[in-house]
Every structure is written in structure tokens, then in C-alpha cells.
Amino acid sequence: MLLTIKELSTWLNIKPSTLYLWAAQGKIPCRKIHGLIRFDPEAITAWLHSFEPSKISAVHHYPANRPAIWIN
Fold first, then answer.
1. Please, which of 27, 43, 57, 72 could form a disulfide with 22 given CB 3.0 to 4.6 Å?
2. Model pTM?
3. CA atoms within 13 A on the CB side of 51
């Protein structure tokens, strides 16, 4: 079942106007059906997970020959 703007705005706790803007800008996965914007819950869940930091990117890599903190 696809979600409406109102349903998704309640789920994400954001204003409907923000969802309309994001949909128009292509910032959130959505479908337009006869001019109505609808959201696939699975696509939204995947989109939300895309903002979680990965384990690799969360680790800081410092050069082996340099300290982690540089003092000028």
C-alpha cells in the first residue's frame, strides 16, 4: 500500500509542505499517480537507511606516520 503525503508526514514527523518540496526537488523517492504524490514504504525505509553512517566511513583513518592530532 502506498502512503499519502499526510501519512508520511505523520510517520516522519515533518510538515506536509516539506514533503511536497522534497518530492518536487527529487530529494525523496515518490510516485506521481494522476497528479497525486504517493510513497512506497519500502523505498522510504531504504531512503532513511541511506542516511545512517556506515561502519567504514565512521572510522577515521590517519596517516601511519602522523599523530591523530596535529599541533601547530
1. 27
2. 0.72
3. 6
CA-based torsion, 37, 30, 44, 54: positive or negative:
negative
DSSP code per residue over 10-51:
HHHT--HHHHHHHHHHT-S--EEETTEEEB-HHHHHHHHHTT
Rounded to the nearest angstrom, the gap between the alpha carbon of residue 14 and the centroid of all alpha carbons in its chain is 13
How many Å is the maximal CA-CA distance in the chain? 61
13 vs 20: CA distance, rounded Å: 14
Q: pLDDT value at position 54?
A: 74
Q: Which phi and psi angles does 2 have, rounded to 5°?
A: -85, 150
